[in-house]
Amino acid sequence: MRGRPAMWTAPAPSAWTRSATGARGAGSATTCWRWPRRCCDRPPREMPMTDPDPAAPDLASRTCTPCAAGTAPHDAATADRMLAGLSGWRMSDEARAITRRFEVKGFAKAVELANLAAWLGNRQGHHPDIAFGWGYCAVTFTTHAAGGLTDNDFICAARLDALLA
Known about the structure:
Blueprint: E1 17-18, E2 30-31, H1 76-83, E3 90-91, E4 98-103, H2 107-124, E5 129-133, E6 136-141, H3 151-164
Antiparallel strand pairs: 1-2, 3-4, 4-6, 5-6
GO biological process, one term: tetrahydrobiopterin biosynthetic process
InterPro entries: PCD_sf, Pterin_deHydtase
Keywords: Lyase
């Protein structure tokens, strides 16, 4: 066989194991195929998004709730009042969606912002429409099931603003 010695053996297991303290050697508690990176030494980060008070006036502290069948959208006056608490967001002419366009430097930052909005939507169970390109990312929230704006749209917009603050 070409490329390796005739008496080739796999490296000792201690070469890719680390203990919780980061020391290598036999009897280590953690086996990591990504050695020498220390990614497996740390416990996974859990980022809970719980709702401490459902009646909280601060939208960013609330959590989205699934829409029940027949959920009615907010009328334009109610949506306008709720939009007043958000900076940089604008409402569509029909009061069916809210949009914010973020200006960033470069394409990579736009992709990162789009990923953040997608992550938030996935965690909240309320997914935005996202458009991005070089130097911008536009995020639009609407509740398709209700045919307009609901509390969930404003909650997600406030949470996105809080993540970016």
